[in-house]
Design goal:
alpha/beta; DUF2332 family protein; eleven-stranded mixed β-sheet; 11 strands; UCP012608; 12 helices
């Protein structure tokens, strides 16, 4: 998929959520395509470009603002984009992830040591502080209740295999937030920096992020400056003895070049640690090989694959709010 196709597909996905971002994506012109060609491929993501553009003063309510910025401030935009590590850090991605953590905790029967790779501010480092409801055609079922407050409440539309409620304890003994530029939520302006990656119309999403931020501040991760795959070992080695290591990636690996992505997968296996992921369907060959034949990566509701130790457990929309369970992760 070339740059124009990527942005056209993004516009289709985001139209209902953010008409302003869809307009920016559809107005990508030759100058902007050439600009994006100057930065590494992982830096060409629409969300990243739009967040950087807003940081540099472009107003999403003006459809022509992105083009104008590319014309008037091209060197600044290229430089900012090349070094940007902005991530939306969307806590809704915990929807498909929490049942995997619950199943793993029940299986190992010991406290977990979590390495959240690409953590940004760590809003996805709190699977133990999520109250999760599954909504089906038959109603809403609570599948997990957070034992402590503050917590995050998520409701997910589910289909496929029905998961039973999981009440077994999920203890996380340590949290490491690995990121090229980890964000300290307690710092001034930190939350504002996070939400600049969120479409301006998505006020409900911003509110949910604020809820997740309160829960994260109650159980803050240890921030570690670094990136995949080179700093994975350092993050794992920072976990305490006795904790069962588990690496979490949620929308992280799309920003890692293909060869390094495979090196990360290989290193996880070599270390013998657990790995929970919610990543774009198809970018991980090993995980894709475990998908049933009726999963179409072009389907918006199969945009991402949730996996446990390299085995696909569910597929979802990009935000983790519509989930089709393919396998029961529970022992």
């Amino acid at each position: 998929m070339d740059t124009r196709e990527r942005y056209a597909a993004y516009a289709e996905r985001i139209e209902d959520v953010s008409p302003s971002y869809a307009a920016w994506a559809r107005l990508l012109d030759d100058r902007l395509v050439a600009l994006l060609d100057e930065v590494p491929e992982p830096k060409r993501q629409p969300e990243l470009l739009f967040a950087v553009a807003r940081r540099l003063g472009a107003d999403p309510s003006d459809p022509g603002a992105l083009r104008a910025l590319g014309l008037e401030a091209r060197p600044a935009l290229v430089a900012a984009l090349a070094s940007a590590t902005v991530q939306a850090n969307d806590p809704r991605r915990l929807g498909p992830v929490v049942p995997l953590f619950a199943a793993l905790a029940a299986r190992v029967g010991r406290p977990l040591g979590l390495v959240d790779a690409g953590a940004a501010a760590g809003l996805c480092s709190i699977p133990d502080r999520v109250t999760l409801d599954h909504r089906t055609g038959n109603g809403v079922v609570r599948v997990r209740t957070a034992p402590e407050e503050p917590s995050l409440h998520l409701t997910v539309d589910v289909s496929g295999i029905e998961l039973a409620p999981a009440d077994a304890p999920m203890e996380i003994a340590a949290r490491i937030a690995l990121d090229p530029n980890p964000i300290d939520l307690a710092g001034p302006g930190a939350f504002d920096r996070l939400v600049e990656a969120v479409p301006p119309e998505a006020t409900d999403r911003t509110a949910l992020m604020r809820e997740a931020a309160r829960a994260t501040l109650a159980a803050p991760p240890v921030r570690l400056l670094g990136a995949l795959p080179g700093d994975l070992d350092r993050a794992l080695d920072a976990l305490p003895d006795g904790a069962v290591p588990v690496v979490l990636t949620t929308g992280t690996l799309v920003y890692v070049p293909g060869a390094d992505r495979q090196r990360f997968v290989d290193r996880v296996r070599e270390r013998g640690v657990h790995w929970i992921a919610l990543e774009r369907t198809g970018i991980l060959a090993g995980v894709a090989a475990t998908l049933p034949g009726d999963v179409d990566a072009a389907d918006p509701d199969a945009f991402a694959t949730a996996s446990l130790d390299g085995v696909a457990m569910a597929v979802s929309d990009p935000f983790g709010v519509r989930v089709r369970w393919l396998r029961d992760p529970n022992p």
